[in-house]
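ok trying this again, last paste got cut off
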Amino acid sequence: MNPWYIFGLEDAENDERGLFILTIGALLFLAIVGLQSPQYLNDMMNAAFTWVLQYFGWWFMLLGFGLLVFSGFMVFSKYGKIRIGGQDTEPEFGLFSWLAMVFTVGYSGSIIIWGVGEPISIVAYPPPDPAPVAGASIESLALAFMFIHEVFPGLAMWYPPFALAFGLIIYTRGTDEYKFSAMLRVIVDDDRHKWLYWVVDLAALIAIVGGVAAAIGFSAQVFSALIGSVFGLSATLVTYGLFAILGLIFLADVWLGLHKGIRNAARATTVLMLLAFAFLFVVGPTLFIVNIGLDAGGIWLDNLLRLSFYTAPTADGNWGHQWTSFWWAWWAAWGLFVGSFVARVSKGRTIRETFVSLILIPGGLLWVQHTIVGGWVLAPGYIDSTTNALSNGGIPAAIATAVNLTPYGSVLGVLFILVIAGYVLTSLDSAVYILSSITLGDEDPNSRNRAWWGVLLAFIGIMTLELPVFDAMQAFPTVLALPFTVFLVAIAYASYITAQDYYRDELTLAEGSNFITRHNPESAPKADDDD
């Protein structure tokens, strides 16, 4: 038997096999170091995180704004009516399945994890004087920053450029290879640059793994905190068991494929998410949630630019970059596979429809969810306990503390575990689908290669349980996404060139034909008498 068959690489080229082996080897080395010397890895990643934000935080802020302007132009200009896959392509998924897959892969367990973690962290460690918004309470300001980072403009900056690039270049224009590097061929189509294409794919794989591994790691530590604090069980042991169960479900999803596996997992997770947040809204501090949501919403909308570019340059430290630049780096790493996956499931939808599914509808839902979660932990009777827990045990301890303070906390704990598990599963499903596709250059990669990527991601996520500080995982997406940001500029330009050419060559011709047909019926093709 061909030994490459085990890894799903029997039909792969040598450079594709090298891409797989190098990426897997580097990440396995990282995971082993994390298991053997967690303090060393922790210190190394935190040092890299601080360095990136100190010297390149400004770059993430400016790039994010530029991408926001670019995406808005592409979506609301004449190019917004271009259909992903071509004008005759029909949608592959129904409305609910489509929106469920877009939402669950795009927003993950961060709604719970950072929906608690960021607001109470800002209350505990507020921005330096002078305050970015004079007269605002620190609780409302903290929630307004959460809206900036995870609702708008955060969403509209980072996901659409990748979805546009994949949708326009890979599916609409068409390419021989399903790879990130294929998008470069729009502007650099020369076989002398094969090394550049290979480096781009390698950087994409590493950045994607960094973002997904961090999300899985955050989830693993929250599982451990909830299981230990809320239910009094052996936290690490039960978490390992939970991941083993998720691994079996993941392998079943791999076997079932995109239409039966990933789609159904996304639908189930969406239902669980709606149920969990409705339950929290009812049993939590409902009136306070409504009031702070409105107050923070006003601060957010009235100070969008101020909060988005807040850096506090005259103050010590990097408070603004520690939050905003971190989030933009996180979105950049996460957006690599989210945008490509969204383009994959959005074939048959227009660029404008995809924007609505990716930004407007989720943005409204995220605003409601973050209002509920943020209002819950910032409310009187919760805020003091959660900030104390944050200081002593990090974000996972703060989440567990808030759950314990809530009426019917054990029910809420179960719902949170199920929701986060669903997000882990759908993120893992979609991430390995894209990782394998990039490795093999195949839109429908084989299940064996996908399984190997899934095992690696789960292994790295489990490894993070051994890290002594929760914050160290912030470094994974931030550091690994930095080299890839230059490529973002290139693919944005390539997307514009592709849209321009396609509109001129395809849509303009089709619209001209329709105009002639409407005004000169005799020129329309005649149907056969037998039809």
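PB: full thing came through this time. The chain has 17 helices and no strands.
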